[in-house]
Recover the amino acids of this structure.
């Protein structure tokens, strides 16, 4: 896969950026503000550089979760239907250090029951349906670049929002 970086952003340092997504359950429950607040208050002070609402398509779900279809075929129909059910919010975070690791720590374990206290998934993840765990996060910097390259347009100038008034002081 060829990875392209949006021309309107400075070239990334491996520790600074990560891709995240508020999943349909988080979207329906209006959790975006709370999720951004937890990210901002993480040790890496993750700040959203871009937010983009998107209803995922079949190819999008395959790109993000194709590994699940192959490894856990019994889970795939539930995961697929869930991801296609409602819009998601794509998020590009920038942090002051190790953004991928910081975001993963902020999210908590994939299985919300096993998520440490005070993490997004411990607060709002489903206790019965594992894929309904509020957020997605890249598992490595390389995967973050792949996801950013796949989902975000090359020219972000018209889509970069000034979020400072909405972030906690």
């Amino acid at each position: 896969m060829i990875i392209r970086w949006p021309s309107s952003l400075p070239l990334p340092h491996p520790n600074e950026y990560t891709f995240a997504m508020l999943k349909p359950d988080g979207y329906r429950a209006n959790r975006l503000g709370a999720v951004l607040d937890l990210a901002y208050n993480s040790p890496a002070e993750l700040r959203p550089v871009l937010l983009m609402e998107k209803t995922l398509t079949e190819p999008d779900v395959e790109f993000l979760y194709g590994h699940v279809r192959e490894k856990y075929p019994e889970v795939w129909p539930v995961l697929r239907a869930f991801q296609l059910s409602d819009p998601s919010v794509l998020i590009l975070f920038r942090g002051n250090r190790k953004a991928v690791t910081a975001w993963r720590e902020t999210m908590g374990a994939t299985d919300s029951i096993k998520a440490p206290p005070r993490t997004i998934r411990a607060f709002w993840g489903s206790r019965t349906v594992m894929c309904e765990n509020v957020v997605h996060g890249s598992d490595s910097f390389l995967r973050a670049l792949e996801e950013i390259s796949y989902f975000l347009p090359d020219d972000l100038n018209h889509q970069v929002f000034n979020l400072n008034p909405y972030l906690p002081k």
User: Anything to note?
Assistant: Confidence is low (pLDDT under 50) at residues 156-169. Residues 58-71 form the longest helix (14 residues).
